[in-house]
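Retro notes - structure team

What went well: the batch runner handled both jobs without manual restarts.
What didn't: labels got mixed up in the shared folder, which is why I'm recording both outputs here explicitly, each with its sequence directly above its tokens.

Job 1
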Amino acid sequence: MDAITPNVVFQIFGMQITDTVSSTWMIMVIMILLAWWVGKKAPVVLEMIVDFLNDSLSDVMGMSAMPYVPFIGTFFLFIAAANIFSLIPGINNPARDINTPAALAITVALSVYYFGIRSRGLWGYLKSLAEPVVVLLPFELIGHFTRVLSLTLRLFGNVVSIELIVAIIFSLLPAVLPSVMAVYGAATGLIQAYIFSVLTASYIGAGVAANEEFAEKNLDKEQAELVQA
């Protein structure tokens, strides 16, 4: 259990900083420096990443995902980087601490509300949660909660299972095979990053699509009223 339990490494003004938090900070610094270097030396690489995310997420959302690529793309890059950079000694995968997947999942859930309210207004979005009948509102809210739970457990479970498998093999076999398994774990992490991003896009896309349908219906209604007038 020590392998997946965060350990306190130092304190700042009385606040305990765990290895999960320190690893997250290191990954953030590496990502910022790497993005700066790639943007300066090979900006076309960044363009390719943006285009890949836009094309992939647009297919899922059924609309242009470009307005949401900076947000969703950050999840993809962070989760992918966390799995790759965890191969570096001294850096632990933040997702092996369940608090990190939970924080990411909660952020996704709040973003769905944010984008929904931004596109439809507070009252309009609240009304959409109760459609087609108010009786279904509790079930809708339960569904939102299960999204958070599903995203959390999916990411946490996959990361921990791979790390435990590598640890077991490392204790039984020479170091060569565990090294291969570690690379396999990083590749699996890329898949998990993609899945997490796609699910996030589908949740946001569902709400935004509903809002666009609502706007189109109102527009058609207004045009019909103008014609009758």
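Job 2
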Amino acid sequence: MSYVQGFVIPVPTANKEAYREMATSVAPLFFDYGGQHIVECWGDAVPRGSNTDFFRAVNAEDDENIVFSWIIWESKEFCDQAMEKMTADERMAEPPSNPFDGKRMIYGGFETLSEINRASDTIGYVQGYVAPVPKDNKAALETMAATMGEIASDHGALAAFDCWGIDVADGEVTDLKRAVKASPDETVVFGFTAWPSKEAHSSAMPKLQSDNRMPKPGSEMPLDGSRLIFGGFEVLMDGRPKG
């Protein structure tokens, strides 16, 4: 299974194009060191919750939107080696004008529990989520995620990843654990389902909801849905190594 670095970032709405340009310019560096796929997504349908949500997660200001992004690597070991090598690369120098407040960015490293990936075509729309899951429920979540991924794929999704937090650090201002109010006996799960377009996603939703493989209302779940944060995102950049 792959290793995923996941990010949630508050970006001023006025800086959308500046963020896209920065992400596009930085991506080749990660590909040079073995990154397999980088996707940057801009909030399109991100709800505000009564308990937790993506905006609270990064202390977003009124004029800011949410960027949801990830980098896929061959393994954690490979990623760790790449990160060490990249620190000596002069291209890692911080850009002269950062289009977001890096102190409020939240991120972590995740091993994939369930992975369906046929995203050879360009991704156009993403459903992303972050959730707290009791550490003892890892196997139950893996089983549920595999079923949900299969359902999404059957109805047109290009990819479905559900990833278990193994390197989620505490932050000074914000972090993924606080984002979902995770307790000490819980870890953070980062996941996404990728679609060819928003229209493909919208047309698939009624089919998913009526699929008899979906969990029945009231079914016991391996995570606390009241603290799960989620949203729909348009894709700013879908990058892969050349060749």
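One thing worth noting from job 2: The chain has a mean pLDDT of 95.
We'll revisit the folder naming next retro.
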